[in-house]
């Protein structure tokens, strides 16, 4: 994979993981019940990172 494309995909996956973390944190603080969605976002981002860097 081209190094610039790989870097772009890595940055996108890390950004998605941060969105998932913030989603989990805010759903815990404000108790609006969507912690599972944040967990799925984090899992998808980590899986994407695994696929890109494998």
Describe this structure in words.
It is a single chain. The protein is mainly α and 54 residues long. The model has no long low-confidence stretch (mean pLDDT 91). α1 (3-30) runs antiparallel to α2 (35-53). Helix content is 87%, strand content 0%. The N and C termini lie close together (11 Å). It contains 2 helices and no strands. The protein is elongated and about 40 Å long.
**Percent of residues in beta strands:** under 5%
Mean pLDDT: 91
User: Roughly how many Å apart are the termini?
Assistant: 11 Å
Q: How many helical stretches?
A: 2
Number of strands: 0
Give unreliable regions as ranges.
none
The largest pleated sheet is described as: none
Defining traits:
single chain, 54 residues, mainly alpha
Structural topology:
Blueprint: H1 3-30, H2 35-53
Helix pairs in contact: 1-2
Task: Please give a quick description of this structure.
The chain is mainly α and 54 residues long.
């Amino acid at each position: 994979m081209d190094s610039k494309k790989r870097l772009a995909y890595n940055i996108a996956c890390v950004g998605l993981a941060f969105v998932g973390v913030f989603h989990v944190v805010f759903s815990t603080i404000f108790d609006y019940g969507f912690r599972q969605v944040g967990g799925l976002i984090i899992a998808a981002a980590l899986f994407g990172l695994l696929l890109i860097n494998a």
